[in-house]
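SEVERITY: medium
COMPONENT: batch folding queue
REPORTER: lab tech (J.R.)

DESCRIPTION
The queue accepted two submissions in a row. Attaching both inputs and their returned structure tokens so the on-call engineer can compare them side by side.

ATTACHMENT 1
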Amino acid sequence: MAEHLVKFDVAPEPVSVPTGTLLVEAARLAGIDISQPCGGQGRCGRCVTLVTEGTVRRRSALRLSAADVEQGYALACQSVIEGGLTVTVPPQEKIERRLTTDRTVGEVFVPANYDPLMAQTIRRFSLTLPPPTLADQTDDWGRLRTALRQQAGLGDVTASLGTLRQLGRALRSGEWEVTAIVDTAVSPSRLIDVLPATISADTPLWGAAIDIGTTTVTVWLVDLITGAVRAQVSDYNGQISRGEDVISRIVYASKDGADELRGLALETINGLIKTACARVKAQPGQIVKATVAGNSAMMHLFLGIPAESIRLSPFITAVNQLPALAARDIDLAVHPEATIDCLPGVASYVGADITAGALSSGVCDAEQETLFIDVGTNGEIVLGTREWLAACACSAGPAFEGAGVLDGMRATAGAIEEAWINGDTFEPTIRVIGGGQPRGLCGSGLISLLAELFLTGAIDKGGKLNMLLDIARIRQGEHGPEYVVAWASQTETGRDITITSVDIDNLLRAKAAIYAGFSVLADQVGVPLDAITEVLIGGSFGKYINVEKAVEIGLLPDMAWDRFKFLGNTSVKGAYLALLDKAARARVADIASRMTYIELSADNTFYEAFMAALFLPHTDLSRFPSVGVAAASKG
């Protein structure tokens, strides 16, 4: 097969590739990372490059005009190399990366009456072994098992080859006084490590609760002895560059990208673990247990399990309930023998993040009909009581988490978290997290801004900006019509902060999907929305959104504000509870087993509800009586 030389303007050396290679693959060989937010499907147009010499065969030119193609622009994920090329790569979009956010870190209360001796499955035992003699030539492993049986009350115990390789050195280094760390959740119990010294009872024993979100990954570092959360860190999921939503990533994985996606997830998680440990002067290798929650696709991609069946009818996962794993088997950068407990999911689009969230939110204990909504890239919804639970899921996109929005960012210092617009001058007043000059817009700020633009008439019910208004803040920008929230002279970045028509469309689709999801679910189980006694909102930004504004745009149902409760990241909190207490872990399994999953794509009901909700606040205004009052008061 013929080889062709491809020169990239941002790479020091050209690369040689065979005929048929995609331009994006050649770029990767040259060390260039070209973002593919649609998973390489050619839908988003954001992997565009300029071919200045040579030609490519274009599988698709979606989002490129005839003039663009004539000038040499090509989608890197859809352009096949058949000859020598010289290529210009535009600057790639960068997602604001923050290892923690001001708005997800907070005090976590240890469950009342937490007793590690009763609740915890990872146990630490101080042992004194009789040293071997010529008269007692019991092998090291047999000697340790006898000590565990006699001094710790454990019956049979197993160990991996890696642990056995370290055993003799640890026993002798500790002069036969050692600390054994054992996983008692399995039968027989499993030896994790032997430390060559006895350790005081109050020395931390480290565990981690991990939530792998489509947009954001969160890690809580926990002392399993006291139950205290000692560090909380979070970051954007590195997989975003290969797909902003679940389907895009599954598609990318199916095109020989599975190993890359798994590596990106591990890179994110391992980086967070390292950061969390540094904060408490611990080492990642000291973490001996981790619980992991995430939606079904994220769990599959994290573990390298093929996920194609999740997006294909009848939408079946490869596995919903995983056995306990050892860290060495999945390359997690903790103790190699650490127990990794992946929490159970329910179905293709209701995963472990929702079973964990159902536990931590309390919907599983509700006496009356309660609605639980996890607002993230996917909108997962649970309706029920302690007697029954029904669930569904819809694709909301990453807009509410700050991704997929031109000036979006996570809820950290510098993010605009709320906005008010003067109905006469259309001038905004903003509130910035941490004070000072703004750097972007977080989810709560986007919801607030969208509501204000609508109520003041700057946008219509369909979200279209009113270009007839004679104000400087509404203008035609590089990405189409936009509203300037903050001028460059007022921002930390020295650039205007705007909300574009594309951003508004993304927000409308997100809010429409969520509203349609819970309204259809309520109809399916025969519970009117006004019969719901409480609405529990999960999600990393959900705790800080303004209820009034969320109702005004049609994201949440129009009901008394005191019926809403905002909980933050319920997935990681559920993982934390399961990490600490074997009874809580058993409850997660019980929740998964009794939750009824309703597939929204089974008929046209969800599509019709989604289309009706694509307007502000809704095509059926009788569902939002308070919004008419709010609009009248603004006028």
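ATTACHMENT 2
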Amino acid sequence: MALASRFIRLVAALIRFVGRLKPRQVADTMAVLAVMTGAAVVWRHPPANEWAVETLAYGWVPVLMWVGAALLTLRFQRHFLILFWRWWGLAAGAVAATAGILSLFPAPPGLMFNTGLGGSWGSVIGGSPLALAVLKVAAILILTPLAMFPRPIGLLYGRVLSRTGLVLRSAGIQTYRLAALVGGSLARLKRSAAPVAGESAGESMDLQTEGPDGHADNGQGVWDGIEPGQMPDLDSAVADRPDDVPAPLVDVGPAGGSLPGPGAGLIWNLPSIELLSAGEHRQPVGASLDKMARLVESTLGEHGVSVEVKDIKAGPRIVRFGLVPGWTVKKGEEGLPETVRVKGESGRVKVQSILTREKDLALALKTPYLRLEAPVPGEALVGLEVPSPSPTKVTLREVMESPPFTKLVSKGGLPIALGQDTGGSPVVMDLATLPHLLIAGSTGSGKSVCINSVIASLLLTKTPDQLRLMMVDPKRVELTPFNGIPHLVTPVIVEVDEVNGALRSLMREMMRRYRQMEEVGARNIAGYNAKSKEPMSYLVLIVDELADLMMSGGFQVEQNLIRLAQLGRATGIHMVLATQRPSVTVVTGLLKANIVARVAFAVASQVDSRVILDMVGAEKLLGKGDMLLLSNDSPKPRRVQGTLVNDPEIDRVVEFWLKQQGPPLPEIAMGEDEDFEEDDGPDDSLLDQARDLALSNPHLSSSFLERRLKVGAQRAGQIIEQLEEEGLVPMR
């Protein structure tokens, strides 16, 4: 009776314990008991035990570890299975390779004698013959990472193969030299042992022959100059390798950096310039340009306009002819024309007469894309810009390797490589001194490529502790490839509704930086970094399509951007704004007044050109990177061919930063702050205006408030909710 009562009490206590558990805890407990029961059955039941041993043997250890980890993750953090699915696939490949490796080891007599330590399933991956097993296991270890991480692993494999090919080629060259050296020595010994009949005593015993390169070969083969017993120089053989063999990654000035080696991670390393593609070789076009210059002079001369081409500058896609106005011609006393050269400029050909002959020049030169500039800034010339007969591309690496860019990098700031001018000179600028940049142009004119060039220039010269980026991409395709790089403050913003919050966060950060500079007595970010132990990083806002923000956020977005443009420079906050819709509703007057540096690509009309540059000219551009650059340096825009950076180059730079682990970065708060001076809710003045409108219009809508009060959709919705609570607007 006592034993039965104890058993009943134990069962009752167990029932009470189970009753206190939550459903998930009960399910977990049942799952654990089921696993333990299954393991006990397999362990104690001979047929199940034999099946387990014959199937995987010791391979069950990694398999059960992988399955157990997957089940625990599925139970507690199931989103990790989707988020890190590549790593789970990599672990599965490692488990399969482990089972194959175990099958290569012999087992003692028993159930595993015929299958090895990996069981019958492991013998499928490994097994015998040994060479085929090693090949299969190696294929799993090599192809699984490549399938899970194609871009970084493919880049790594490519580098390894290129280095291996270079080493094999160098070894082949060394072997060939040694063979030639040995063969030449044997031939010389043979000739010295058996002299040629009729040879005089004063003649040389060695027969000199001419090698394939035209130099004397003293019996030593084509590698003349190598003494017997001397090892060939491997470095000299590698130095003349062909162009198709990639060179090791090297640094180029301050813009270059070394790849992170073992132990890296305590500091940030800059990527190498070798990640970018090399520039194109340009063909000389001197003869054709001289012919075009004579054609310009003769065409204008036929219309009574005397000019002389004094200066020719050939750029990558544009040739600029510098025209000097000639002298007017009048009839002499006997009816013969004579040139009249009077003092001053009264006898010169008028510049306006040259400009009016634009269509005649276009007809003679057989091109519709022709642009006249009078005068050229800083020169006493009339510029005639014509498409080049042999256009070439301008690569980003070509501009970044130029001395002006290297000099700009050494000064600090935010160097960006924009392209080359009409004379082929590199055009580089410091975003920190601009201090903001507006990029506009029609679809396909090169706007997105210019943005990528600006971002790539910054990523190749600035580490995350020196530069932080915030990107807005409503189109979701242009800037999203940069997601994950350590420079980003937040992932690329693709929802337009989140932009206003991000701009307010930038303004909070700006005011926080002003307070920090006030504490140390600094006037700008450079002075603060010179005095403070913890330097302040630059912060750049990049917007790919400004029109979408202005349409959705309206007046509020414009005010936030204008305030950042006015006050952000001193705190190191800069903006790069781009749009393909250059209208007065998008590029407003207040915005242009605070953004002096502007880039205009090809546009459809003179009206769009005036919106961007306040002057005409952008409607005559060629497209595909042809731009007009307006900055503080010159009152008139400069013609520039933009740099080209393709998607594989961007991918290589992004992969470099994704693989690198550096020190922790200071956080920039991106959430809402109650202490910020701008309240998210409607203020009293707006509510008073909305109440007046509601009294005169009982069926008030949020879209009506957006138009009348010039507020965003979120603010209009809040006002409508307030009016509904007050009973001025019927509940929806």
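NOTES FROM REPORTER
Residues 195-265, 331-346, 673-681 have pLDDT under 50 and may be disordered.
No errors were logged for either attachment.
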